[in-house]
Write a structure and sequence with these properties.
globular; alpha/beta; 16% strand; Aspartate Aminotransferase, domain 1; 359 residues; 7-stranded mixed β-sheet; Aspartate Aminotransferase, domain 2
């Protein structure tokens, strides 16, 4: 079997061990004579998988009992709307820090549902090529919440330090960098993440939400969109995406077996270092358009001197079985998404190509 080096931004690479486990259990899980996809979500076999997945999120991210962990559908894009539906009370305003396309979409949804304001942006000065500093944020101390996008897949930027929002709940879309390193969950009121980058396949979103925010959430919205509904039903109010939850369990089991999030951080910093060093040392041909203190450890974006060279570079990468390096259509260039499951050897192969291509 010929596996490629997968640099896709999402759906993205999955740990080989998690895939092999799924392959082994695809027709028969736990001697039940059925695939997990065929089991009732109310049955004991699936229930065990479901609860193990939640327990692994809690364990690996060190989530306290002050929080609920939800496994939902609709992806992060649905959470753009569900967050203000639940947390933006009438007469209150919400703050949004603008760092790219996804934060813009989240802000747009909030404006439909209530009052939202831009508390900081780096769009005008450098086209989202950096993360705003704390001193640049104009936060409303009476806001219902402050929303950030922790990592920006399109522009290759990432919060290295999270903003201090005082007593105002900090909400983070962590779709593209959740579980890349240990974080202090207690700094957040709510974290949500589409699974298809670091956690599993598409079709699932993980929500970590503080219990007091669930209790205070609005009740004048459809029941299916209320966080309390899913808390009360252990994320089984309706049929969950059972295979995606199963794969979440498999992926997090692999992360745990390989040393947890501290080990992931060490590996991810090493992988990103290989690429940024190769790019920076060949600045007459390659360039990274992101300020160094804002560079993402998950999505390394770079350009070549001319479009013709970029086309040639992609062709050379293809020969080495590299996939997914073409940048987002809105910005062009190159993008190497080096999530947890992308092996160091694959990243080293790309760094070596950068060196050889320059020569």
């Amino acid at each position: 079997m010929a596996r490629v080096i997968n640099f896709n931004a999402g759906p993205a690479a999955l740990p080989l061990g998690a895939l092999e486990r799924a392959q082994k259990e695809l027709l028969d899980i736990e001697g039940s004579g059925m695939s997990v996809m065929e089991h009732s979500h109310r049955g004991k076999v699936y229930e065990a998988v479901h609860n193990e997945a939640i327990a692994l999120v809690k364990e690996l991210m060190n989530v306290s009992d002050d929080y609920d962990i939800l496994l939902l559908q609709g992806g992060a894009s649905q959470q753009f709307a569900v967050v203000p539906m639940n947390l933006l009370a009438q007469g209150k305003s919400s703050d949004y820090v603008m760092t790219g396309a996804w934060s813009q979409k989240a802000y747009k949804e909030a404006k439909v549902l209530g009052t939202a304001r831009v508390a900081g942006t780096t769009e005008k000065d450098k086209k989202f090529s950096r993360i705003p500093k704390q001193s640049e944020l104009e936060l409303d101390p009476n806001a219902a919440y402050v929303h950030i996008t922790s990592n920006n897949t399109i522009f290759g930027t990432q919060f290295q330090e999270f903003p201090d929002t005082g007593t105002v709940p900090l909400i983070a879309d962590m779709s593209s960098d959740i579980a890349w390193r240990p974080i202090d969950v207690s700094k957040f009121g709510l974290i949500y993440a589409g699974a298809q980058k670091n956690l599993g396949p598409s079709g699932l979103v993980v929500v970590i939400v503080r219990k007091d925010l669930v209790e205070a959430g609005r009740k004048d919205i459809p029941v299916i969109f209320q966080y309390r509904t899913h808390v009360e039903n252990n994320s089984l109010y309706n049929t969950p995406p059972t295979f995606s939850v199963y794969m979440l369990r498999n992926v997090l089991s692999e992360v745990k077996a390989n040393g947890g999030l501290s080990a992931m951080e060490k590996l991810n910093r090493e992988k990103a270092g290989l690429l940024y060093e190769a790019i920076d040392a060949r600045s007459d041909v390659f360039a990274c358009p992101v300020d160094k203190d804002s560079r993402s450890f998950m999505n390394v974006v770079f350009t070549l001197k001319t479009p013709e060279l970029e086309t040639e570079f992609l062709a050379e990468a293809k020969k080495l079985k590299m996939e997914g390096l073409k940048g987002h259509r809105s910005v062009g260039g190159m993008r190497a998404s080096i999530y947890n499951a992308v092996p160091r050897e694959g990243v080293a192969t790309l760094a070596d190509l950068i060196k050889k291509f320059k020569a």
